[in-house]
Amino acid sequence: MDDIMVRRRVPASAKAEQRIRDILRVAREVFAEMGYERTTTTEIAQRLGISEATVFTYFHGKRELCVRVIEDWYDEIIAAVEQGMPRDQSTKAQLEFFVRTHLRLFLVLSEGRAKGQGLGEVFVPLQRRYTAPLMDMLARARDSGEIRSDLPLSLLRSSIFGPMEHILWDAIARQRPVDIERTAKDIVALLWPALLPPDLEVAALREFYGEVGAALRRVGERGE
Amino acid sequence: MDDIMVRRRVPASAKAEQRIRDILRVAREVFAEMGYERTTTTEIAQRLGISEATVFTYFHGKRELCVRVIEDWYDEIIAAVEQGMPRDQSTKAQLEFFVRTHLRLFLVLSEGRAKGQGLGEVFVPLQRRYTAPLMDMLARARDSGEIRSDLPLSLLRSSIFGPMEHILWDAIARQRPVDIERTAKDIVALLWPALLPPDLEVAALREFYGEVGAALRRVGERGE
Amino acid sequence: MDDIMVRRRVPASAKAEQRIRDILRVAREVFAEMGYERTTTTEIAQRLGISEATVFTYFHGKRELCVRVIEDWYDEIIAAVEQGMPRDQSTKAQLEFFVRTHLRLFLVLSEGRAKGQGLGEVFVPLQRRYTAPLMDMLARARDSGEIRSDLPLSLLRSSIFGPMEHILWDAIARQRPVDIERTAKDIVALLWPALLPPDLEVAALREFYGEVGAALRRVGERGE
Amino acid sequence: MDDIMVRRRVPASAKAEQRIRDILRVAREVFAEMGYERTTTTEIAQRLGISEATVFTYFHGKRELCVRVIEDWYDEIIAAVEQGMPRDQSTKAQLEFFVRTHLRLFLVLSEGRAKGQGLGEVFVPLQRRYTAPLMDMLARARDSGEIRSDLPLSLLRSSIFGPMEHILWDAIARQRPVDIERTAKDIVALLWPALLPPDLEVAALREFYGEVGAALRRVGERGE
DNA sequence: CATGAATGAGACTTCATTCAT
DNA sequence: AATGAATGAAGTCTCATTCAT
């Protein structure tokens, strides 16, 4: 755990640990702001008011530093989810908690997903671990018939993470803050019906209603 | 906006236009494969078998080239949507068409979204234009009561784009192909219930169904 | 042959080839003066009055540049030996030629021998090719009984290369010039007795001398 | 020469001297393994389990440390030669002893020889001191007519050191162990005849024999 | 005395971009 | 119009060395 990212000396001292924390904190900021490629070690060092060499004293290189930042972030969010998940409440409440937590802690690091021989390898296992609680929850709810079983879980997963990240990115691009509580509630309110098992009769009725409505409008448009 | 591409585009001979198209085509490939930062002008020139300098004869620089690539891509997808959108079919069918088109033409250019003094500014208006047909459709459907009105349209939008992009990224990260037809169908099947108004009571639906049925029968009786 | 060390463009033009030759020439000087590790690409560029980047335009890196320098040097000396070797003269004369050529063209590049994950791999095959003419000569002379067969050829080889290099190094360390003709003669004069078969008895030699002499006289008598 | 090692060596407590010995021992290992440039002070400190700073407490720097290592090594080998040299035995036996000792204690430090503003200056006097016993021996043997006097002693010296080092380097490059006893015997067996005064008659006969043989072979080759 | 911590100086390398031909 | 050639600027990383504690 220690010897992975430490350069030579093994700085287990309080000072060293503080340094490591500082570097990680600032690095997270910079990586989040700029993305992996556009982040420079110079920038990180400058923001901390230390020499670039110091950064390399504690981390083997830019890549490893980024991996650590990501790992730490995943650890944080995983811990938050595992600890706080209200397992005794309804699936819907659990989903809401999950979304809220993700929105609160989401780290924008597009390159992670990015192709090239980038950090891809690092992400996959973390992603799996991270997604596990949600997937478990969904699987259980599906087995108990609480949510629909006619679509692959991976699709459900994408339909939960996808909107969250889309919203956050949009907010970042527009430089607007996100009202996390409200957004979490809205997302779940929106998606919840999508997750329920399609009650056949109701679903059929709904569809019928929709189609007739549309047909009506089309006739209306032409008529006028 | 005006000073872009002024350089020597004045003559715009047939040959030159072909060059520009070639460069744009290959540049799109490379940007999509590698992302903005990891793309090199060398790579683009090499794939075309031309000199790097030639690229700079037609474009002011890497950045401008990328902006053009993105603009062209947006133009394409916007045109595809505007032309192909089956306006006379149901909202659901239109949504499906939209999703299918997006999945087919989606350009993965994570950095585009990226912040920093990147391409962010370029994306916002394009994104707006691109989203317009979908938003219009949603707005109309909401006004007619076909889809829910209790949540902001922007959320609905995110809940459509988000999953699509999440799925595509996942596929890219895992290097797996995407079955576009099937995925489009699944996404819509999943999300459709989420878009419907939540407050339509089954009773109301049944009543409506009954009335429409009766009306239909009456028409039938007369016609024959 | 070309694409190995060329960076992007394939500069087969006269100008480019001149550049490559210039860089190789200067690089050889610097590597010889400083050794691999202490040589800097900056130094090479400065001596040529060009930018460092230009060096990297023509060679993939310091390492490859050094490999090229060494290969070229080996090629040169191998060609010189293969072309100039007086095969119709005595073994001793051939040896002298070999020593003279080596002394004239020897490149001091200690690190080549050096361990570490340096250039070692590059040297072995070249060394083998380079040594081949000498080893062949020695093997033939040994098979014909002209030189001793009681010691491994590799030892004989070391006893020829060793002194040469020792002398050259000494001269370099003391910054004194080497009188190549004289040194070559001396080395062979010294080593020749060491190479002869030790067991040829003087008696046998005398007898042989006598017989040959008699034979000669007989020929002479007939010829006149 | 005087200002070297003055730093804090004044007290020279027992503990400190042990430290110095330890550092020198390990430094010798590392320098021998990696060469001067590729050796890092970090590596030396790590192998000793001490801090890098401690190394600098006892030595002014890497360079001085290396000089000390070399000096010590020379001292050792000089002492070994001076003490062990079997002065009452034959010159040949003494030579053998010398070779064996050198082979056993040889320190591979190519860079030492290296030029540049390297350690060159350090080597010359040490080399002189080190070579002294051998040179004396050779001088005496030459004066007594035991070995040849027609060639400069420096050449004889190179013809002894050269092969030894060539063999050792080869062994290191190929990562093979050296059978020291056997190699020492072989080297002397090979070189001894080279050192003997060329008995004029025998030498002339040998040469004659060699040339006639070669001539014969050449005729034979053409004839067939 | 020993060392934890920090760093200045410099190495190699990449790449978008310019310009004369 | 096309390009061969060159490079400035910048980026990542290494390492001997210093100094306060």
From TrEMBL, chains A, B, C, D:
Any Pfam family the entry gives: TetR_N
Annotation: DNA-binding region: 40-59
Keyword ATP-binding: no
Molecular function per GO: DNA-binding transcription factor activity; transcription cis-regulatory region binding
HTH tetR-type domain residues: 17-77
SUPFAM superfamilies: Homeodomain-like, Tetracyclin repressor-like, C-terminal domain
Keyword terms, alphabetized: DNA-binding, Repressor, Transcription, Transcription regulation
Protein name: TetR/AcrR family transcriptional regulator
